[in-house]
Each structure stands twice: as structure tokens, then as C-alpha cells.
Amino acid sequence: MSTASRLLITDATIVSVDPGIGVVPVGDIAVEDGVITAVGPGQPREGAIVIDGSAWIVAPGFVDTHRHTWLSAIRHSYGDVDPLRYFKEVLGGAGPRYSPEDVYAATRLGAVSALSSGTTTLMDWAHIQNTPDHADAGLAALTESGIRSIYGHGWPMTTDGAWTSSSELRHPDDIWRLADIIDGQERTSLALAARGPEMAVADVWEHELRLARELGIRTSVHVGAYAPNARARAVEAYAQRGLLSDDMTFVHCSNTSDEEIAMLAEAGATVSLGVHCELNSQGIGDVPLDRLLAHGVRPSLSGDNETKCAGDMFTQMRSLFAYYRSWVGGRHSSIADPHPLTLQDMLEFATIEGARAVGLQDSIGSITPGKQADLICLRHDDLNIAPVTDPVAAIVLGAHEGNIDTVFVAGEQLKSGGRMIRADSAETVRLALEAQQRLYPEWDLRP
Question: Which residues form the Amidohydrolase-related domain (predicted)?
């Protein structure tokens, strides 16, 4: 279904994540040219394409602020193993073997499956820039899927330096070409997926950050992920050079010190938690939600790396809520009076806080007039969540991808009746399987 000039979803339970609107038990959402124009009961139907939402909970689409979609074709392959083996076999072994076709297939699978599970905006952390063709392939897959995307331009998995700007693998200057390609696209924007002080020498990480600022784009960087690297104190390194600012998102922060969390909070920087992967990755450290909240930092959430975890946002919300309740309830927290956590907080982390972390809080993240119509519609009469007494609790505690009937991005219907519309799901899986067989022929399970 193409974007209608005027669309009306009627009689739905609306979870707006807008503090001025709240939860509307029975109401309508009016959309014109992909933008929400009104929320509430009794909207006029004349001239609109009317969709009956009486069986739905409608919520803003989830915003994933850190997903390595190029790894989606080798999903769930390293959940049982030591992270050091993953680094060696995937980043050091498979990464250099990826062709542009493999990047396309994996990114397409990651984006389409994200949409199917309610993620309407995805920050694709693409550290697979082996050649310019690799970048083009990833961008093409994102654009064709229909998802709202932020292409996080990373670094090559190759180490020969053949097309990079220096033998130290400085950030490829090809990002300028990508900026020109992306400029003016309605659903695709650009960010820098940087190596940072824990992964590169100062000349390299300073160059990358200054490059992002020349382009006027946000920077996302992994920090404090593993205890040995915590000594690098990445946030402090940025602060000491006067580079710490509100255009930065720090991923993980598991071993980031309290002092550094205070620094990034004061700077207005954001944090992305890849909760399921952080809990599944031996040695990564504790999820620092209690320490973040103590400094007023409300994180966003991410599906991170599907080789080691589930990528959907339902899993991230549920995992984080349970972890936090256990962590605080078991008196493991170093915070004297930990911040109380609600299910509403969890939904906000997955929506409006994600929008803030990618710089789109004025356009997405809540069902608010004037924002883009990025919406997910869940059947509230499904056995696993019915009868619904609290729609926020139903989403966070009980819902999953199978409950999502319909997904809109900018008013365009990309999933309907539980089936993807723009993307051919079978073709998407076929391409991903072929990529997996090229990369890991020993994994072929066919008789």
C-alpha cells in the first residue's frame, strides 16, 4: 500500500508516548502525507482511507540505536562461545571475506526483520566498509526495505589499507560521497560509527570525530564494553580534549566509570544499551542502567549483534526490566537509592529516547500531531496478551513480533495482516541463506 494523502485509523487503543496525550482507550489517528495531523476520538472520515483499528493497540514504532545488520545472515551462531572467539572468527575471519552481495543480503534481512518486529527506525552500525561498493550495497538494502534508517558509516574489516586514507586505517573519505547520495533522502540519514579511544590511537579517533562534525552528523562509539578496555576511559579522553558534546551516543558503557557518566550527562550525550547482547556476552560487565539513571541519563535500546542475541526491541525491553528489578532488588547496585523503574520508562527507552539518540526527537518517537506516522499496530485480542488491562504493560511484558498486525513508516503500510508488503520475505531469507553458505559453507544443514 502506498502512502495515502489522508489516512485514518479508527477506534484503536492508542499508546502515544506523548505526555500531553497519554493513553487513549478508544481513539483515532489522522495522517496526511505521512504526517500525523490529529489524535483522539471522533476524527472526520470524509475523504480518508479508513482503517478499522478497534482490534489494535497502536504505538509509535521502535527506534533501534545500534544494530550491526551486516551480521544478520549469520544469526545466533556465537551465543555459546567466548567473545574472543567471535572477534577472531567473525571480525577477523569472516569480515574480510564479505562481498558487497553478502552485505546487501544481510542488511536486507536485518532491516526487513526489524520492520516486521516493530522497529521503524534503525541506526545501522555498518563497520563493514571494505570497499565503496560495500557501502552502496548496505545503503541500497536499507532504502529498498522502506525502514527509516541512519547509516552508521564505520571502518573496513580489511587491514591492507588499500583504499583508506592512511596506513592507520583512518576513516575512509568515501563518507563524503555517501553524504551526497543520502542528502535529500526522506528516510535515510548518515552518522559516523567511530572507533573511539578504546579502539584507535588519538590521531585516528580525533580525526573521525572532527570529520563527523564537518559533515554535521552524529557520532556513535562503543565504550566501556570489556573490563580490560575500561582503562582507556574513552569518555574522559573526549572530555580532556574538549570534544565531548551532545552530538554523541555512547554504546554499552558497561565499564564506564561514574565520573565519566557524569561527564557525558553534563555534555548532553546519549547512551545506547544493547541489553540482550550485553547480558549474553561473557566479560562485557554489568548493564549500567542504575548508574545512568542516577545521573539523569535515560538510555535508548538496541538489537546490537544478532550473532549473539535477539535483535527485536521486545526482547530488549523485557530483558532490561527484569535485569534491573533483580539487580536492584538483590541489592547489587552501588547506588544508595536506585531510581524506580516503570514499564512506561521501558517503552520510552525504546521509542522517544531512541529518537533523541539519533537526533530525530522532533520527527518520530511518539504519536504526536506534526510527527511522522511511524506506527506499529498490535492485535490486543491475541491469546498471549488478552485480555488487556494495561496496554503499556501488554507491550513491554507480553507482546512479540507475532502480535504485530500492521506497520507504517511515514504513513506507508509496510506490514499488513502480519505479512510484509514491500519486501518479499521468502526472497529476503533466500538471499541471506546464500550469503551464509558463501561465508560459512561448513554450516550448511541441508541433507
Answer: 57-413
Q: Which residue has the cell 554499552?
A: 252
C-alpha 346/C-alpha 283 separation (Å) is 25
Residues 294, 226, single domain; the answer is yes
**Of 49, 63, 66, 67, which is closest to residue 10 (Cα–Cα)?**
49
The answer for residues whose C-beta is within 8 angstroms of residue 210's C-beta and 6 or more apart is: none
Crossing angle (nearest 10°) for helices 132-145 and 175-182: 20
Within 8 A by CB and 6+ apart from 162, the residues are none
Number of domain units in the chain? 2
Cα 93 to its chain centre, rounded Å, is 25
pLDDT in tens, 229-242: 545 689 999 999 99
Q: In which residue ranges of the chain is pLDDT below 70? A: 1-4, 160-172, 226-232, 282-283, 444-447
Spatial CA neighbour of 402 closest among 417, 392, 412, 421: 417
Q: Is the pTM of this model over 0.70?
A: yes
**Who contacts 308 (Cβ-Cβ below 8 Å, separation ≥6)?**
76, 78, 79, 86, 277, 280, 281
Do residues 253 and 392 both lie within one domain? no
